[in-house]
Amino acid sequence: GEIVIDEVVDRETLMARVGGNLDNLKLLVGIYRGSRDPQLAAIESGLAEGRPEAVSRGVSTLRGSLATFSAGSVEQCLDRLAEQARAGQLDPTEGERLKQELERLDQALDALLEGG
Hints:
- The protein is mostly helical and 116 residues long.
- The protein contains six helices and no strands.
- It has a single domain, classed as Four Helix Bundle (Hemerythrin (Met), subunit A) (Up-down Bundle).
- The chain is elongated and about 40 Å long.
């Protein structure tokens, strides 16, 4: 389906952060994408192996990489994972949800970069 950018990121805040410059945005997206996969893998393996501290670390790192994008639904997912890690009650389905939200974020960022 068609991605609705504004459901995934706060476009106004994001564009203000990059001074309305798509080249700046492209640079930030590239940096984020370069680090995302190992961070996601760390969260997923922490969930699979029942290691809350690994999940917590992965969540913090990924949250840092994502901060620029004002991606509310991804941040909510990370909040839930962080809460589960603190409580020591991990729910692997939250990892799946995170992956889906990150895919939506990717689509929204691509649409923005294409001048959406």
